[in-house]
Amino acid sequence: MIPFIDLASQQARIRERIDHNLATVLDHGAYIMGPEVLAIEARLAEYAGTRHCISCSSGTDALILALLAQGLRPGQGVIVPSFTFAASAEVMPVLGAVPVFAEVDPQTFNLDPARLGDALATARDGGVEIVGIIGVGLFGQPADYTAIGAFAAENGLWVIDDAAQSFGGSWNGTPVGQLAELTCTSFFPAKPLGCYGDGGAVFTDDDEKAEIMRSCRIHGMGRTRYENIRIGMTARLDTMQAAVLDAKLDIFADELTRRQQVAERYAAMLGNLVETPRLAAAATSSWAQYTIKLPEGADRDHIAGVMKAHDVPTAVYYPVPMHEQPPYRHFPVADGGLDVTSDLCARVLALPMHPYLDAPVQEQVAAALATALGDSAAYGKSGAPREIASS
Ligand SMILES: Cc1ncc(COP(=O)(O)O)c(C=O)c1O
């Protein structure tokens, strides 16, 4: 089976540096908030071009810290896409607040700015006060923060960028990190910039909010360790993970270039077969995933099965929209419904994507997809049993 994400090739490239960095931590023994944590925060802030980077224990905790900094109160509402990973929406109910699910654009898979008003209207009708928007840069492409920011400003809302997947991307030449007041990312190992465990960060230019988040990640501490001036949590980045990130950040820009090349090759190979990912004119993507749209009515499970039989793994991000997941079904959904979201959940398929994917392997992916699609079409026409159609 070819790897879906190839962390081994990346590790081989930087293994010496990782070993050296980890040995340094073992030698000094400052496992919590060691010097590597402050050092990686400085490097990441410089990379993103922000005044502050507040590292933390995961992308989910980054979102919670950001919401605490925004002062989100129980019962208040936050607009969020339904076509996303659970964490984007989950953090609201964790704080007693209400996710209000909005529609996405069929091409970019990100929040459709033209439909934000529908989410606002639904919430107002239901008596929920909307205070902010969490936009998600799905699969690596930032959302349209020009339009989202304008909508937010008109309606007195704050904006958080959930850039767990899109760190490294840009919008109109501005890097992710600067596209919203607060930007959250994840260093989960499979993310474009990942560590070897859980990790995350929030980026901001706001001194006061940065201070709140630094306090909240250590139990709401004040100036000294055992002075607690607000309710917080344990949400620090481990020193070991900071040491890993230091080695990975060295090659991040090069890896982004490689991912772009992989995406371009896929587009050339697959463009006639399926709908390949489309970037907005203003966007560059970190290509966290390469997600195609299968033809309407295609049998996705069957296609994935045939590809697997050809040693090509695939994944579905995401098969069920958040507003249809049992714990979220009672939360408001934007007026007019989420047909685009439902259609995407039925048709998307993610292909292997990582910086070390070369043309011959991509040819293998393309050939497997072509076979699977032909097979699926034949199955559809003949009504032959799947076993016969795929043999
Ligand atoms: C869009 C999005 N938001 C948030 C998260 C949460 O990140 P973590 O797994 O580090 O908590 C993820 C992780 O997969 C994600 O894809």
- Counted up, domains total 2
Order of secondary-structure elements:
HHEHEHEHEHEEEEEHHHEEHHEHH
What is the C-level CATH assignment of the largest domain?
Alpha Beta
Q: What structural category characterises the helix and strand content? A: alpha/beta
Largest sheet: 7 strands, mixed
Distance between the termini: 19 Å
Anisotropy-based shape: globular
Q: Going across the biggest sheet, name each strand in turn.
A: 1-9-8-5-4-2-3
The assigned CATH architecture of the largest domain is 3-Layer(aba) Sandwich
User: How many individual β-strands?
Assistant: 12
How large, in whole angstroms, is the Cα Rg? 22 Å
Q: What integer is the average pLDDT?
A: 95
Present as ligands are: pyridoxal-5'-phosphate
Q: Which range best describes the helical content: under 10%, 10-25%, 25-40%, 40-55%, 55-70% or over 70%?
A: 40-55%
CATH topology of the largest domain, what is it called? Aspartate Aminotransferase, domain 2
Number of helices: 13
